[in-house]
Specification:
binds hexanoyl-coenzyme A; four-stranded mixed sheet; alpha/beta; 12 helices
Amino acid sequence: MTYKNIIVRREAADKIAVVQLNRPEVLNALNLELMTELIEALEGLDKDAEVNCIVLTGNEKAFAAGADIKEMSGESAVGMLMRDQFEKWNKIRALKKPVVAAVSGFALGGGCELVMLCDIIIASETAKFGQPEINIGVIPGAGGTQRLTRAIGKVRAMELILTGRFIDAEEALRLGLINRILPVEFYLSEALKLAKDIASKPPVAVRLAKESVLKVYDGSLDDGLDFERKNFYLLFATDDMREGMTAFTEKRKPVWTGR
Ligand code: HXC
């Protein structure tokens, strides 16, 4: 199966698959078409008996710089709510097989949220994480307020979400967001090595172990995700969202009016 915005490669002997986000000209911004392809590919691999573990990666410069701002900028709150495009991301959360993220460069906004949907995170020395949505007049909309807070704690998540500050790989490691850091030449091979190791374990035990660890998130996570997503859509009713996204496209500083 070939896709337009992602590349899927299997390493059959080791029972792993690598999925690469592939819109390098826009730092792998996650548009609807890419996400549809990604979810279809991941669900296919999840059902494939010849694959035991999946690696999700981008390129050296960017894992993903967020949801595609240009695609979203003209949307209304009602349009966002009715299309509910980020609800589909829950399908990634529902994958039974472990997903190892191999992250280099930018992992911002929806890119950081996608990383946090993975089970293990290997970063290169150049990785940069952040939830900069506040700078374009919105908030994280695919789990960032919930998963970042669970991963690094309330006060730290609050600072990053309210300021939009990026953190480098060292800080991400210190905060417990990622598993380890490798030089750029080795982050992907390390992720593959780890995936091969996991793929060599008994698959049923791996599946139940993943499900059990994720159980920690159940219960109020669903309520939190719904609440966050609706608020994200609601912000499309504000002038500041329109201004933030337009200013990004026009490469200028936004002027906030508080409306
Ligand atoms: C659309 C994007 C993009 C994005 C980058 N590009 N990020 N296009 N959506 N999220 C495009 C740029 O417009 C530019 O296109 C090209 O990619 C290269 O980006 P530059 O800005 O020129 O690169 P650089 O100067 O190196 O700056 C990198 C950057 C910056 C710091 C990552 O691009 C940036 O701030 N991007 C936006 C990050 C962000 O706000 N993410 C959150 C999005 S909202 P051209 O055509 O000019 O060459 C979000 C909501 C999540 O994710 C909701 C649930 C999923």
